[in-house]
Amino acid sequence: MKNTSLCEHIGEQISGFLDGELSQQESQRVSVHLSQCESCSQTYEQLKQIQGAVSQAYYPNMEQQKMNAVLQDLTSKRMFDFAWFAIVSGVLISVVFGVYHFWLDSSIPLYSKVVMSLIWGGGIGLFLTVLRQRLIISKTDKYNKVDL
């Protein structure tokens, strides 16, 4: 059976069929099509082999001591801190520069400046509130160091 639009549709569903994610009706439709179409059946078999090979792959876990050594590396910590400092500094400088020019632009009416400032101020306030809550929670979270 060589109906290219049907084969394309079934081809999109083969992965879901392999993973058991399709409804019963869709699974039956794919199963019937695979029994009648050699091209789609070959695609199914290839994906099945790939899925088997991936499931049998060995992924070694890093020893906890090595993991801690990597995470506690002083150079990495300093680079991480510098990167965050650079990002935050750049954003703050951009915001200050933008606000300065926004408020000095005489072509924008005062009411627009006030409304936009309130909207942006509220958004920044909400962001800082959530950030503060997350920082507090991260320090007191008893499940923070649980390995899953």
From TrEMBL:
Keywords: Membrane, Transmembrane, Transmembrane helix. The chain crosses the membrane at residues 82-104, 110-131. InterPro entries: Anti_sigma_zinc_sf (IPR041916), Znf_put (IPR027383). It comes from the Bacteria. Residues 7-40 form the Putative zinc-finger domain. The keyword Transmembrane helix applies. The keyword Metal-binding does not apply. Pfam families: zf-HC2. This is Putative zinc-finger domain-containing protein.
